[in-house]
Structures are given as C-alpha cells and as structure tokens.
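Per reviewer request, we include the raw input and output of the structure prediction for the construct analysed in the revised manuscript.
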Amino acid sequence: MTAPPDAAALPVESIAAVGLKAAPSRLSERLGTHPDAARAMRLARETFIVGDRVDMGTLAAALGVDRTSLFRWVGNRDALLSEILWSLAIPTLIQAEDAAGDLAGAERVAALLTHFADDLNRAGYFRAFLRREPARALRLLTTADSPIQRRYVATAAWLVRRDLGGEPFDGTITPEELAYLLVRVSESFTYADLITGEEPSTDRARTAFRHLLRV
C-alpha cells in the first residue's frame, strides 16, 4: 500500500499530479507539512482499505486525541473521505497509464480510462464503500461538493490535450468539454448499481469511451 501523495512532491506534468494541482483542498495542502494530519490520514486510509467504515470518533480514539483535535487536523468526515478516495485513485491512474503501453492518441485515452474504470469495479474496498454509504459516495464522487470530480475532469482534460492535442476533432469540442463527457461516461458505468440499479460494466464503458473518442 502506497502512502498518500504529497502534491508538492509530484512532477508537475504527470497523471499523478494534475488533479491535486487543479483542485487542492485544505487537507491536501496540509498533508505534506502537518505531521498530525498526515498520521490521521494514514490511519483512516488503512481503515478504508480493509473495508471498514471511517468513523471520526473511533479514529480520534485510535490516535489518542479528542474529536475537536481531529477535526482541526483534517476537517470534517467528507473532507477526509475525499482525500482518501483521491489518494487511492492516483496509483490506480498510474497503473492504468502503464497498462495503456505503446498505444497513442484516442486509442490510448480510451484504453487508459477503461482500465481505470475496470480497476474501480474490481476494488473490493471501493465497492464496499459504495454499498455502505451510497448517497455520500455519489455526492463525493460525482458532484462539485468535493474536489474528486474536479480532479478527475482536470486529469481527463490533461490526457486529452496530451494525446489528442489542444483542439480535439478539428476544434469541434474543447479538451475540457470532452473531458467532462468522458468522466460522466466513466461515472455512469462505474456507479451504475447506485444510479440505475444495473451492474457496473467495464465492457459498456469501453464501448462508450471508444464511440465518444471516435476510435
């Protein structure tokens, strides 16, 4: 298990860094400079990965502090969960980029996003969180109430500019607009069980990505 990323230590032009740099939060900016916040984040992340609920009272007790101190270090529970989720998305994105191998252009973007969606669909701890707290999960993952979607859109826009250029499809759509559509496709098929009651489907996500990217 990798440690939570420190945005300041990440390369500027990398799939790992772009989301954090596009949408920093109070907690993400503190993790590299505030040892107590980092310690709380590590323990909360370990709790999440084993499939348990991250409870602020339990976490504070495990850290040997009161809830007031914990909230001062990391913010509220939504803020903490958002950073946990993104800290787990980063190595998943890196792995997806590695899996895309020597592909180029739209093929590469489609393959990378498909691999990312597949990893999310297969991650037991992630699916457990979706089942355990569906309303909170959708709010944190698919709306602007937390930085996660803004980071994902910024990452997708970075991929589009890198692999399709600044004017994709002869300038008929901007990288940011295309990125938003790609993220919505990803969300639709990753969280299908919460949105429509259907099973999450990597195959359907792949097909949608390829159609949208004109592969």
